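Pasting as-is:
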Amino acid sequence: MFSLESYQAARANGGVARRADRGVLAVSGADRASWLQGLLTNDVGALTENEPVYAAYLTPQGRMITDMFVVACGDRILLDVPAPLAASLRDRLDGLVFSEDVQIADESATLWVWTIVSPDAFRDVIADTLPVEFQALPAIDLDTFEVLRIERGVPRFLADMTDETIPLEAGIEDRAISFTKGCYVGQEIIVRVTHRGGGRVAKKLVQWIADESAEIVPMPDARIFSLDKDVGRVTSSAFSPGLNRVLGLGYVQRDFVEPGTPLTIVWKDARVTVAVR
């Protein structure tokens, strides 16, 4: 349940959220780094110990199977993934191991994920207990963290990104994709869109903010209009106490992505005037 007290504490001094919505896969074996390097979008061939690298795992058609944080931890590489997908991802990845010295285990029951909230960033930490240096931070429940996430415009897989999403549509390429590493699954599509297509995709994820008159929070899949033209849909939304506004994320056609673009969200019988943020 959302807590105004922990929300205010986190905005003022940071905080820590126990991420029950995240799972952990452990990849071990001598070939673990090179094997992952050929699968994931970011450069994970030379990880720094305990420094998370954000990446995506794609289909050959360039659509997302999941996003993840990749963390080197001793003789294992840990994958911080959406909890509902952990078991199926373990099986899927295990099916891609042939002659490589690679083993994959689902460690979601023994390793936990915390997100450390600072004034300018989120950082995930994986351990069985919260490290001492973070134990004094205010605790944030998941509902409260969700408001902070939406305020910062950070997309979440299974909400703002799905298995139909190309990373370029979600705008995560600067964080999740290396354009200098070797081949990975789905690279051909990403390169084609980026270099030959100038990065143009049919729709883009944007953050929107409602005007002061908004009295409702439009739910995911509410339609987004420009005048009478249906141009997109809402993926996440919340009321921000700090801004005293309703805001959220959503996909809109590429001609409507510029900051300040006026739009209307239609939810049931209500119409909410918003602008791209």
